Amino acid sequence: MNKKAQEEVTSSSSVNTCEDDDDDDKLNWRSQNVDWFIHFWNQKRVQYQSRLPKLLLITKGQKDEVRKNQARWGIDIVRQAVINVMTSDVINARTGKRFVFSLDWMLSKEYFPLVAQGKYNDLAPEDRPLTEQERRKQAEEERQREAEERRRKNLEIDQQIREEQRRAREEAHANRATPEQLDEIFKNFKLPPLKK
Q1: Which H or E run contains 130?
Q2: What is the largest CA-CA distance in the chain?
Q3: 3-class DSSP state for residue 120?
Q4: CB of 30 within 8 A of CB of 75?
Q5: What is the DSSP letter of 30?
Q6: Which string of b and e fits 148-182 if b means at least 16 CB within 10 Å?
Q7: Residue 28 carries which DSSP code?
Q8: What is the DSSP string of 159-175?
Q9: Among positive and negative, which fits the CA dihedral 132, 133, 135, 136?
Q10: Whether 150 contacts 195, CB under 8 Å
Q11: 168 and 186 in contact (C-beta within 8 Å)?
Q12: Could you give the residue ranges of the DSSP H alpha helices within the chain?
């Protein structure tokens, strides 16, 4: 393999590796954009009702750590780590035990992989209590399902009424019923009332 091809293979495989590499220039972390991080942090903080502080700005060192982790692990892993921090009862001190959290701790080379893998998670996202926003959304979806079910049942009843009236007309026509007899048939004809 020539030297140029070897360099391409090396550069393409170094983007998402988890090698314990101290040569930060190989990861090209300085070019990573981290403008999304503060917005994502604050959005997930509200969504999961986290007790962690709102981020207004982060230091240059913290930005560098976000860039390094993003270059080493990928943006999806960094996002998952933020979600894990927001949903963790241990980190949010919901278990009664005191946990002193710092952004530097989370982003550190030692602890970031543990946070991203969910070492500090105690509840899966589906097992955690619903947020107020999620409860409202769930209640609204339930109301919509019930309204749709009522509409469907009313349509079925309406269809049954029309079908029975059609059959009664055909039967009356076949028997050559008079209009008075037809009125008598419809007067005695009963179906359950429509639901509102």
Answers
A1: none
A2: 102
A3: coil
A4: no
A5: G
A6: eeeeeeeeeeeeeeeeeeeeeeeebeeeebeeeeb
A7: T
A8: HHHHHHHHHHHHHHHHT
A9: positive
A10: yes
A11: yes
A12: 3-13, 24-27, 36-47, 60-73, 75-87, 103-107, 112-117, 132-174, 179-188
Report pTM. Answer: 0.49
Four-residue CA torsion sign, 169, 170, 171, 175: positive
- For the stretch 18-59, pLDDT in tens is 444 444 444 566 666 778 899 999 999 998 888 888 988 889
| φ/ψ (deg, to 5) at 174 | -65, -35
pLDDT band, very low/low/confident/very high, at 119 (cuts 50, 70, 90): confident
Q: What is the CA radius of gyration of the chain?
A: 32
Is the separation of the CB atoms in 42 and 55 below 8 Å? yes
User: 């349509």: which residue's tokens?
Assistant: 155
CA–CA dist 138, 159 (Å, integer): 32
Contact yes or no for 94/129 (Cβ under 8 A)? no
Length of the chain, in residues: 196
**Residue 123 binned pLDDT confidence (cut-offs 50, 70, 90):** low
Neighbours of 50 (CB within 10 A): 21
